[in-house]
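Sanity check record (used in CI):
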Amino acid sequence: GIGKCVAMDLARRNARTILACRSRERGQAAVEEIRAATGNPAVVLRLLDTSSLASVRAFASAVLREEARLDVLVNNAGVTGLPFAITSEGLERTFATNYLGPFLLTNLLLG
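Expected output for RDH12 dehydrogenase:
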């Protein structure tokens, strides 16, 4: 998808690239594919579920602690067509995933 294409382009430019993915298995497969295609070993996976504000906070905390700087943030998470559901934090899942999570992430990383 769009996120993988953006990550591939950043890696081709020799940027340290963090893939923020919900699925460890799919994310790791994307990391390996991007590394192989670009020759850039600085492509890493971090788990993130933007429907969970706790996951967003943990991800942002790790990035701020582990990374010297962050030059570009691409908010690409999104879902559509899911049945109505409430997250464990009491938020409507689609709204949390598409809006609240990315908004919180951006604000936490602005630091």
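The longest strand covers residues 17-21. If this sentence no longer matches the regenerated tokens, the check is flagged for review.
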